[in-house]
Amino acid sequence: ASIELTKLISLIIISTKLKHNILKLYPSSQPFDDVPPLLPLETRKFLAMSCCMSESKVEACWTAVNEIVWKDDIALQRVLKAELMEDTFRQNRGLIYR
Fold it and tell me: Which residue, 5, 35, 95, 97, could crosslink 70 as a Cys pair with Cβ 3.0–4.6 Å?
């Protein structure tokens, strides 16, 4: 079964914003830097509704993208934070953006 790219991107962005909430649902022994193997039920339901996916697709997508979400990918952080996005344009612009 295929998943639309926009839904996958939405899942990545929303999951990134939910990291601390996801960890709150795990025992305190769960290290912050370790990707949780499964999303808590509440999180799966929220992502399914927010991204217009079934819970099973959310689980499949989580397996594919959890490292991107959890490991603070620099490129993703630049997109998520407005000031970093502006810095990215300033640092990487070509003649077309002048």
Answer: 35
